[in-house]
Amino acid sequence: MSSRKVAIIAILVALAIATNYAMMPLYNIKLMDIIVFLGGFGFGPFVGALIGIMSWTVYGTLNPLGFSIHIWLATMLSESIYGVAGGLIKKSFAEHFSGFKREQSSVYVFFGVLGFLLTLTYDVITNIVFGYVYTLSILVAVIVGFVPFGLVHVISNAFFFGLGCVPAINALLNVIGVENFGVPEK
Amino acid sequence: MAFLKNRWAIYAMLFACWGLVASFLAGYYWLQYKDIVDRISGVLISVNIGVDYGNDTRTLYNNTKTVTGATLFDVTKQVSNVTYQVGVWGTEVVSINNVSKQGSFGWTYWIWNSTGRSWSIVWENADKYRVTNEETFVWYYQNDFNPPP
Fold it and tell me: Mapping DSSP to helix (H, G, I), strand (E, B) and coil, where does residue B34 land?
């Protein structure tokens, strides 16, 4: 891996952590998830997962809301879902698109739906762990955890992913170079 | 990603997202409803209670609010001053609003039969009879088992 890629990965981790702290007053609205997704999209599922884990290692430890090792581990591992998904999606898109120069609304909708589903998965997993840690009924923890904070998280991420993925991926391609992205040039 | 060219695939994805959100919201409000029902131990209902003292005076307690599972005895105690005794035959109402049983005079309760448009006696202890929504009862002070006027 080139030093340039390492630097970009470090910047993505720093960006994820910094935006999380900056957006703390906006409960459950965060840019970390899309950043982790972009990391996976740009560098593969393993690196994407690592970006998610490293971000939560810092943010979960030094968190004003408190620390719980079970929840910390759950959030750390669940966040990696975004990175893994980004890496897997990249492989699918790389065969069919040359970057994201195409202005197709369906691509935006797809990313919005993907963000929605990934966030729902993340919230369900973390709520299950929360219910287990605080000896609540798992069903109650999952459902009550969804309304309203889970719903805010899911809708905000659907919005961020839908509108932000295409321009962010284009920007990432400009930085790391299309030739390094594995996308066949037109 | 050829499916992205099919608009129906897009609609299906959006519909699936809507379905998931709607399911979670339905589950959330069901839990809220269940919590309220558990806390008030039933669904709110209303019944009509009358107390006929047998001398052409009758006190009516219409639209008395109670919850499902409550007995006529519970509702009567809720609206009036009741004294009772517990014997081999169960709970017997001794007095309502300071009108006590004396000699052959005592309290019977009747339920309004809307089909037959008449009062029917209930051969069940008041603390065993569970009221249902919009039933009408009257406690009748008499020395017989005639229906109230």
Answer: helix
Q: What is the pLDDT of residues A16-55, one digit of tens each?
A: 999 999 998 888 899 999 999 999 988 889 999 999 999 9
Please, what are the averages of pLDDT over each run of 10 residues along chain B (149 residues)? 76 91 91 80 86 90 89 91 86 90 89 87 86 91 83
Shortest Cα distance, chain A CAs vs residue B41, angstroms: 20
Nearest CA in chain B to A146: B24
The pLDDT confidence band at residue A186, using thresholds 50, 70 and 90, is very low
Identity of the residue in A93, A116, A143 whose CB atom sits nearest the CB atom of B1:
A93
Which ipTM did the prediction report?
A: 0.79
The length of chain B, given as a count of residues: 149
Nearest CA in chain A to B3: A106
Q: Catalogue the long-range contacts made by A62-71 (C-beta closer than 8 Å, 24 or more residues apart).
A: A64/A24, A68/A133, A70/A129, A70/A132, A70/A133, A71/A126, A71/A129, A71/A130, A71/A133
**Amino acid A179: pLDDT:** 59
The pTM (predicted TM-score) of the whole model is 0.67
- Report chain B residues whose CB lies below 8 A from the CB of A100: none
Residues of chain B with Cβ-Cβ distance to A109 below 8 Å are: 10, 13-14
Contact assignment for A97 to B1 by CB distance below 8 Å: yes
Q: Could you count the other beta carbons within 10 Å of the beta carbon of residue A70?
A: 12
Residue A61 to chain B, least CA–CA distance (Å): 30
Q: Do residue A140 and residue B31 have CB atoms under 8 angstroms apart? A: yes
Cβ-in-10-Å burial (0-12, 13-18, 19+) of B115 comes to exposed
Nearest CA in chain A to B10: A106
Contact A116, A154 (CB under 8 A): yes
